Amino acid sequence: MDRLFLFIATGAYSGYLPKAPGTWASGLTVLLWLLAGYWGIFSLPTYLLCVAVLFCIGVVSAGAAEKLVNRPDPGLVVIDEVVGQLLALTAAPAHPLVALAAFILFRFFDILKPFPIRWLDQHIHGGLGIMLDDLVAGLYALLVLHLGLRLFHLS
């Protein structure tokens, strides 16, 4: 079971990639999202259900991985970036420029950590804490992305 938790928590081991594993995981998530979008795999309700289920699985697996490696919020745990990036891409048109904008916005909010992201990161611990700050960063990115799409009449 430990291997399964680590597989999930590390985003299919992408968390072991060198230098900035969260950025790698976000980028790989965007590429997979683009492929799924081109193939029209998900309806919006199914997509949101998948993100919610992945969040719940992420809470459990991130918490387990944290205990397995004996470090709080270890860098190799990137399931939080996967879920946050997926949230940022919700209901966006499957276009490379839109995907790039969502990627940049999510990484911006994930790194900058405006309120309440930094507070969540510092005060909520365990699997929920690992997941929650990236979920809010994804929500911020989602809002800014869709505002930009509306302003430029792209949605």
Low-confidence stretches: none
Which geometry do the CA atoms define?
globular
Largest sheet: none
Share of β-strand residues: under 5%
Rg calc: 15 Å
Number of helices: 7
SSE string:
HHHHHHH
Share of residues in helices: over 70%
**Arithmetic mean pLDDT:** 94
Q: What is the count of β-strands?
A: 0
Structural class: mainly alpha
Give the termini separation.
Answer: 43 Å
How many domains would you count in the coordinates? Answer: 1
Provide an overview of this structure.
73% of the residues lie in helices and 0% in strands. It has one domain (2-151). It starts with a helix and ends with a helix. The protein is built from seven helices and no strands. The radius of gyration is 15 Å and the shape is globular. The model has no long low-confidence stretch (mean pLDDT 94). It is mainly α. The chain has helices at 2-9, 21-39, 44-69, 79-88, 96-112, 117-123, 126-151.
List the keywords.
single chain, 155 residues, mainly alpha
Summarize the model shown.
By secondary structure, this protein is mainly alpha-helical. It has helices spanning about 1-10, 20-40, 45-70, 80-90, 95-110, 115-125, 125-150.
Strand-helix topology:
Blueprint: H1 2-9, H2 21-39, H3 44-69, H4 79-88, H5 96-112, H6 117-123, H7 126-151
